[in-house]
Amino acid sequence: MKYTNSIEIALPQAQVAQLLADPAKVAHWLRDIVFHEALNGPYGQVGSTSRVVFQSGKRQMECTETITRRDPADVTAIPAGAVVHFDREITAPGMTSVVRDRLTALTPESTRWESDSEFHFTTLPMRAMALLLPRMFRNQSQQHLEDFKAFAEHGTDVRDRTR
After folding, report:
1. Chain segment 22-59, per-residue pLDDT in tens
2. What is the rounded average pLDDT of the residues 150-155?
3. pLDDT class for 112, splitting at 50, 70, 90?
4. DSSP SS3 for 34
5. Domain span at residue 9?
6. What CATH number should be reported for the domain holding residue 85?
7. Could you point out which of 65, 81, 110, 141 has its C-alpha 20 to 30 Å from the C-alpha of 32?
8. Confidence (pTM)
């Protein structure tokens, strides 16, 4: 299953990239995250892996995230006209996903975040869920973008809305 989500954020590209790259900010905008722990390498650097735990209702899902691309590596010095890339592979029981994020400056004060997601399911229950509920995956990805936008632009913390 493949799909693309996007959103426009009313902030400069460098500011958006720095917020996305900051591990201390993830819990403020990534809904349902319980735990995020670096396993090896500095957070967000190519080749680094992290253990991530999500809670959805009474169900917990643990996955491993591996950063496969971060370009430019230093998001505090983005060349004019450059597109910022953050790519990662996420593995969990029954599935693997690849996410390719692009941040493009639309104006000096606005950024488009485009996110390509690709899922591969390895178990029958996960395949059935993807077949029966494909919109759930796309909608959840769009919700993450919208939550980030609300946090970045207004300081809205998802933890305040989900308690």
Report:
1. 988 998 999 889 888 999 998 889 999 999 998 878 88
2. 96
3. very high
4. strand
5. 2-32+66-154
6. 3.30.530.20
7. 110
8. 0.90
Contact 147, 158 (CB under 8 A): yes
Contact between residue 12 and residue 111 where contact means Cβ atoms under 8 Å apart: yes
User: 73 in a domain, yes or no?
Assistant: yes
Q: How many domains is the chain partitioned into structurally?
A: 1
Question: Do 120 and 13 form a contact (C-beta atoms < 8 A)?
Answer: no
Residue 130: closest CA among 79, 96, 100, 99 = 96
pLDDT at position 162 is 52
SS (H, E, C) 66-116: EEEEEECCCCCCCCCCCCEEEEEEEEECCEEEEEEEEEEEEECCEEEEEEE
Say which residue the tokens 């650097």 belong to.
45
